[in-house]
Design goal:
597 residues, mainly beta, five-stranded mixed sheet, 5 helices
Length: 597
């Protein structure tokens, strides 16, 4: 590890931050400074919006690379960089190197931290060896390693200050999620639903790394931190041990519900929001019941982890429609809402104070596994999807190949985060336009071994060739405003800006800029490898920059990333994205863009 010799790095308030309240106050203030990018999603509300307006829909055509940096790693580069003061911080896929780069010197390395991890964790990682980024708080950079270790690094020097192991990779637990600092705590989730890991979110004290609270996705109320009387689901108390009663026997102990997606936070409500993933196994016949609280949106108290409200989107998930996608916090007039684009193909709008369901509509017209979400509050099935049996694996038993299901298991959108512009009041969503055949089979649980129980194949919707769309969505009405076709799934995170420009990346490697109001393509640039990273914006020395990590991989690019050729490998993705190798190759590059002088 290289020690920092020159420090122009962190803004002065960051260096003196200490104490519970101050750490949170610092971030609440810093996130409002558009010149910096201080959280994985830019701000607590996960809007991925930049108020910078130097780059506009009129001049974005003049964008050129300002400088670039090779990461030295050749797997899927999800997530994106932070910018704090004059320093950029980012992490790589396994082995999870963290770099601190000097913006005053075109990305000169100030320090580099490379953890020593057992490579045996690599085959336990479901869908590539990705890492979704680091977090900042109280003068520390927080890294969530593949082996589930959470480490706090000194932001000035990169020196480790403390570290703690959150899970056990030998039993299938891994770490891929970006941490989030809330008050005096740093929150992380866990991966491992395909290994029968019972998901959780952990909150650690940022001062010393001690566990403050942990809330599980399934199990007794003492584990989930659910209050039978106070916690509500669609306005009604959930009752005692609401999770256990929806599983057969002790299946909840290996029930999945992983939490590897994005976390958002409302400081005024002191509530954190996130989603839980698929239940284990992928064979639904083996786990009768609703399998609560997998596939759910959670609202937890940031101090205690106690659950205020919860909503299960896909009871008894039969498709692997993980619910881990980001919760975008935005306002509709005086109403505080949460907008969520689920893997199941529905765009949800909920009142984030009460959990009331306001909108639930399809954001990809190919979705066929369900006809609609029941929005009748007087109905016994209120809030549940109306399922089409022929597209529901397990409905006719095991060892049956259920064909033509849309979307595929990777969903109408995976973890690639959307963006929201308060100017246009539209959400900008990178989507997958992919269907699948799904054959469930019986599988036995062995700790540390895959616990999937299904064979998949993926392909575009019948009669169509594009596997992705980039769309603008009106969360008030639940309607698509405009849609741009892409040959492959759009697997990068989006960025909306005050210049009426929206940025996103493609699996072929293009960074694209489109008009926020019309979707018209304004500019594109081919980076060295496919983009599955998240675009960000910052300002330095009076100039606005756009930054993105390229490096093909992730679930969609797992064939390239891991050298797989069997069409059913990668949980069905290898065959569906086989043509991707004609357009890009492995690489790990940070590219920073600015307007031509």
């Amino acid at each position: 590890m290289r020690k920092l010799l020159l420090l122009s790095c962190v803004a002065a308030p960051a260096l003196v931050a200490s104490g519970a309240a101050f750490a949170n106050d610092e971030l609440v203030t810093l996130q409002k400074d558009a010149k910096q990018w201080v959280m994985p999603a830019g701000n607590y509300n996960n809007q991925r919006y930049s108020a910078l307006n130097q780059i506009t829909n009129k001049n974005v055509k003049d964008l050129v690379p300002a400088w670039s940096f090779s990461t030295g790693v050749l797997r899927g580069h999800e997530g994106g960089p932070l910018v704090i003061g004059d320093v950029m911080y980012f992490s790589t896929p396994f082995p999870n190197i963290v770099y601190a780069l000097d913006l005053n010197n075109d990305g000169k390395i100030l320090w580099k931290y490379e953890p020593k991890q057992d490579p045996s964790v690599i085959p336990v990682m479901c869908c590539d060896t990705v890492n979704r980024g680091v977090a900042y708080g109280d003068g520390k950079i927080f890294l969530h390693q593949a082996d589930t270790t959470l480490v706090a690094l000194d932001a000035k020097t990169g020196a480790p200050l403390w570290q703690v192991k959150d899970g056990d990779p030998s039993k299938g637990s891994t770490g891929t999620s970006a941490p989030l600092v809330v008050k005096d705590k740093v929150l992380i989730g866990v991966s491992g639903g395909e290994f029968g890991v019972r998901g959780w979110v952990s909150a650690y004290n940022i001062a010393d790394g001690k566990l403050a609270w942990r809330g599980y996705s399934e199990g007794p109320d003492a584990d989930t931190l659910i209050s039978p009387e106070k916690t509500t689901a669609l306005g009604k108390p959930v009752g005692e041990n609401s999770s256990i009663s929806t599983w057969e026997g002790d299946q909840w102990k290996i029930g999945g519900g992983a939490t590897w997606g994005w976390i958002s936070y409302d400081p005024e409500l002191n509530l954190v929001y996130y989603g839980s993933g698929n239940p284990s196994t992928w064979n639904p016949v083996q786990r009768p019941g609703d399998n609560k609280w997998s596939m759910s949106i959670w609202a937890r108290n940031g101090d205690t982890g106690e659950v205020k409200w919860i909503y299960q989107m896909t009871p008894h998930d039969q498709w692997d429609y993980d619910g881990i996608n980001e919760m975008v916090l935005q306002n509709q007039g005086s109403k505080k809402v949460l907008v969520h684009f689920d893997r199941n193909g529905y765009g949800y709008t909920l009142d984030r104070v009460t959990g009331e369901l306001l909108v639930a509509e399809k954001y990809d017209p190919a979705v066929n596994w369900s006809t609609k979400i029941d929005m009748d509050k007087s109905s016994k099935t209120y809030g549940r999807p109306e399922v089409v049996a022929k597209y529901a694996p397990g409905s006719a038993g095991e060892d049956v190949n259920y064909k033509g299901i849309c979307p595929a298991a990777l969903g109408s959108k995976d973890e690639q985060p959307s963006a929201y512009s308060p100017i246009t009041e539209l959400n900008y969503v990178p989507t997958n336009h992919v269907c699948m055949d799904y054959e469930p089979f019986r599988v036995s649980y062995t700790a540390g071994q895959p616990y999937v129980g299904a064979t998949l194949s993926m392909y575009p919707p019948p009669g169509q060739t594009n596997m992705g769309n980039f769309i603008a969505w009106d969360a008030k009405t639940g309607k698509i405003v405009w849609s741009d076709k892409e040959q492959f799934s759009v697997w990068s995170g989006a960025l909306a800006t005050a210049g009426n420009v929206v940025f996103y990346g493609t699996l072929e490697g293009y960074l694209k800029a489109v008009d926020a109001k019309t979707g018209e393509e304004l500019w594109k640039y081919k980076t060295p490898s496919g983009i599955i990273g998240d675009v960000n914006a910052f300002e330095h020395d009076g100039k606005q920059y756009i930054a993105v990590l390229s490096g093909v991989g992730g679930w969609a690019g797992i064939g390239l990333a891991a050298g797989l050729t069997d069409p059913t490998a990668g949980l069905g993705a290898v065959g569906g994205y086989a043509a991707l190798s004609n357009y890009t190759a492995l690489g790990g590059t940070l590219t920073v863009f600015a307007l031509h002088k």
